[in-house]
Known about the structure:
By secondary structure, the protein is α+β, with helices and mostly antiparallel strands.
Amino acid sequence: MKIPVSELPKVLDDDHNLAWAMALPEGAVDPRKLVVDMGQFGFATRMAGLGGVVVRGYQGETSQYSLNASSVSGINTDGSATGVGSVSVEKAETENIHLEDDNDIQLPETYRWRVATVDINRAEIASCIADRRRGGQTSEEAWASELNRSLSRGIRTAAFNNLLRTPAKKFYDASYATTYGGIAVGELIYSTPDHALSFLTISCALATIFQSTTNKVIYGEPLLRQKRWGVLPFTGIQPDRFALASMALAAKPLISSTER
């Protein structure tokens, strides 16, 4: 299902896991012609372990181009000079990412669904859109391409921070992931695939039972529907989910134009 940007709420609610609080320039683009593929978005964010995404805009810096020292390299037959030089580019950020987290330190990492805020630099993408317009794209096509790039890149960065870049309190997770992965690989190499599969199944079952029991004691329910399932069942480090989220973001655009 595809929903126009103009119909998305400005804040997250029970019916929407995407909020669009970024104002688009009036007259420059029709937000009704920019649509979000909610199916693709939903799959990518679920794999990323995100409970929702908020898109906002801000007026930031633009990329700066400067010409370095140039020199004459030759003379043409008509007497004009030719020169050589180089241009340096200082790229501006197109988006900033912020992950919101609750303060419930007792909740296991694999049960957390953080909200990601993607702040898009309107000034920088406006410059990129101008380049696309000169290349022959319509306004809606250019805006769709740049917004899709910023949103997809923002979600991928959020997924990396959420699933792979862990805070100090999750050092145990990293140790566990290394040990668990080493044993699983050893089982696969030195034993039979059946033994490796049995090890994986038993480990997942034991880890799930342990976490469910702990949640039952603390929260009154096992919270199985809230769990972020993955190959490593007892750790917040989940490279498998990050890989699936990255593939989903690369396979199909999240935002497109109805003019295409």
